[in-house]
Amino acid sequence: MARETFTGTAWITGAGTGIGRGLALALVARGMTVAASARTEADLAQLAADAKGPGSILPMPLDVTDEAAVRDTVARIEAEAGPITLAILNAGTNSEVTAEKFDTIKFAHVVDTNLMGAVHSLGALLPLLRKRRAGRIAIVASVAGYRGLPTAAAYAASKAGLIAMTESLKPELEADNVDLTLINPGFVDTPLTRKNKFPMPFLIDTDEAVDSIMKGLERGRFEIVFPWQMTAAMKLLGVLPYGLFFPITRRMVRSL
């Protein structure tokens, strides 16, 4: 995979807070024009005010669950800022879904935002990047997509879908000279994770997460995963047979 050079125009979804905001600021500092999308316009305005050049922020309010709006936004970015050379599909949400409170509306909202939001974005981006035979798309999933854990039925399903989708598309897009990167964070201190009611092992701050992602992009890695402690734990769970896996998750249920 080619190394990232951070030139041209970047598009980041979920850029108003957390990892997306940190990446937007980092790319502006590298000189890129960053089209920043999020649902909350006030967050984008604050991001633009806080950005330190030589690049700049182009606020692009957007709800990624609206496919037509996503296509319009991508077209507007290309018209106003030039061809998108790097897209980071980071928009995401989480709602606890359990067997006791199996809320189909919450489940659908998580899947629509996390998985279908990325699908809508790819639908707008891929024809452009494939035609130009250039560009990189980074898709933010999660180590939660490695294995299903209690209370995470919706979140884990959406992130597992992102991982499988990215793995599926990679060899096809390589033939078009379009690079794909899969970003799998563990627990990162963001406004979203602060809503969690359970202990979050190996929690890291946003700056550390952004630094790991930027280094991974620079080196052209396919998977960027961090922190190593959470990665090791989740990858181990991912290979355990069910006879060993379910006793662990049963203990998790009893501790809730």
UniProtKB/TrEMBL annotation:
- Per the record, the domain of life is Bacteria
Key words of the record: Oxidoreductase
Checking Gene3D superfamilies in the record gives: NAD(P)-binding Rossmann-like Domain
Query: Belongs to which family?
Result: Belongs to the short-chain dehydrogenases/reductases (SDR) family.
Q: Which PANTHER family match?
A: DEHYDROGENASE/REDUCTASE SDR FAMILY MEMBER 7B (PTHR44196), DEHYDROGENASE_REDUCTASE SDR FAMILY MEMBER 7B (PTHR44196:SF1)
Query: What is the protein's given name?
Result: SDR family NAD(P)-dependent oxidoreductase
